[in-house]
Amino acid sequence: MHRLNPLVRTVALVTLAFLYLPMLAIAILSFNRTRYGLQWNGFTTDWYTRLLQNAEILEAARNTLVLAVVSTLVATVLGTLLAIALERYPWGRRSRGWLDNLLYLPVVTPDIILAVALVVAFGALRAISTLFEPGLLTMILGHVTFQIAFVALTVRSRLKSLGRDLDEAARDLYADYSYFVRRVLLPLLAPGIVAGAMLAFTLSLDDFVISFFTAGPTSQTLPLFIYASVRRGVTPEIHALSTLIFLATVLLVLASERLTRR
Amino acid sequence: MQTTPSSLGRLVVWFGELTTPGRLYRRGLWFLLPAVIWILGLLVIPGLALVALSFAERGQYGDVLWNWNLENYSRLLGYGIFGWSPDTILILLRSLWVAFVTTVICVVLAYPLAFFIATQPPRTRYLWLALVIIPFWTNLVIRTYAWQMLLSPEFPFAKVAQVLGLIPADGALYPSAFAVYIGMVTAFLPFVVMPLFSSVERLDWSLVEAAQDLYSSRVRTFFQGIWPQTLPGLTVGIILTFIPAMGMFVIPDLLGGAKYLLVGNLIQQQFYSSRDYPYGAAVSLGLMILTLFGLAIYRRRGQGVELV
Question: Which GO biological process entries does UniProt record here (chain A) (predicted)?
Fold first, then answer.
């Protein structure tokens, strides 16, 4: 193993600590008795019990989860199909180049431009159907748009590393296509699909900009709620909520770590 | 494989399957089309609509008048009813500058971190990597708001700055450019560390040892032995940071205050409060052109590195 300069080590550890500072501050304040301001006034867990009685916050939490789960399911199916199409079918060089560009476009487009494009798209679609009024549905459609690419990229790298031997072996042993997909391809792809879905799910939870532009009056999500409360004054319930979300994501990341490492 | 129509009925073996190109294409399209139609319909076509929209004009009630002129672009360059003003150009230049400085700081901090993680024993290496990613899964709004608190007068950072005379007594460190940089760097650091780590992990250390054996200085070892080997990861990291940093609006909004607008805030204002879609479209296109420029660099330089 290579020895690191102690200075490099120190800089690395200080940088890492810096990344955790915001969450630490919020976690400490969530146990602070003070309602307004940041003065320490004694330990309490009141804010956590109050949080669970706050209907508005619970509704926002429910919307956030529905949005993340539904959009992840849709994006995982579409993204996996796209990855298989790109990796296992004989497209010409030209069309492959275009498809690659199309795949990377949602990854490199700044959030705000995707959001603005969605505003324009839903504006036009509203002329056809009232289904596209801003709300949970438009948010789901928006999230899927950027999630597809991330799922497809993750699944595709798994497909690449699988190579073609197992495909050929299965077909040589007279597996028909649907049997091959169900019993060979999907089980082999599972770790990649799970990793892609985890990525899509967390991207959805982390998103603010797309939600901000596509949300309607009845589809408040947690990031939107927190953003709005930063403007009108943050209550300690928000600190408690943020701490809980942080703990939940830590568990999620550790779980996905275990799943993908196998 | 030939793709001319006459060859579509020919028998081929593809991944162990005896089939014809025609059948393969037909089945492939079923896999391909749902996702492609989705991205075309909700990103590419609306993106093209934005191009058209940027040549239109805002009507009196926030509606769109289609009279095809370059009004929005001259406004983007600073020409308004009251003559030329540098305001919008300043916003554009400031966005470029903030994105640039953010990227430089992220890169400088990412190298020690990437090397630190890459030199950990394999068993704990991925745990350290997870430690870099975990804060990034907490919603950006929450993290940014946390920095608002951390930089407020009651907390030690502002106290230290007050004692040093950097800010007035009782003053806060936000809203300020400094606060925006702190928010940006902590938000984008994982995006540089991750791809950089994948390059560092595959580093050929024998080159570094050769440089050391030949008495090269530390600086020279780094720039001639290490840095060129990390270029693919670095390129991806820079693009993953610079592009979203250009369009960022949550961080300048919460930490920068009204005087420190970036292009993201400008776009948000057009589509949210002032409802001037055509001008917003023109500003978005300016940002998008820079993005595609970044993509071109990525496709040329970052080959062989996975984005995710």
Answer: transmembrane transport
